[in-house]
Amino acid sequence: MSDIEIRDDRAAGRLEAVAGGGEAVGRIEYFVLEAPEHAIVPVHTVVEPAHEGKGIAGSLARELYATAAREGVAVAPLCPYVVKWAERHPDQAPAASPELLRAAKAWLAAHPGRF
Predict the structure, then answer these.
(1) pTM (2 d.p.)
(2) I want to staple 33 with a disulfide (CB 3.0 to 4.6 A). Which of 5, 39, 59, 70 is the partner?
(3) How far is Cα 61 from Cα 75, in angstroms, rounded to an integer?
(4) Strand-strand pairing, 14-18 and 24-33
């Protein structure tokens, strides 16, 4: 994992794991929710098959929560991988309120072509 850099492309809604040669080898796709509170909402986690099993998805999830903590915002995970990662790392991944999760699901349902 030492040759992997994680970059946040907020405009595109992607947290990307980039290999030394500039190749994107994994990503978490997300959107930013404004209400009922400001939150980052991860929807999909993808790691390229040749890079699976190297801890890339976990590093992406860890950085997503670290970014949210630095910004003072919540994470409302809808991505199954991020949900499971958060359950295994409750010290790094504060639970989202049910209201926030409902709002994130409603936003996603209202924007079916986004992901």
Answers:
(1) 0.93
(2) 39
(3) 10
(4) antiparallel
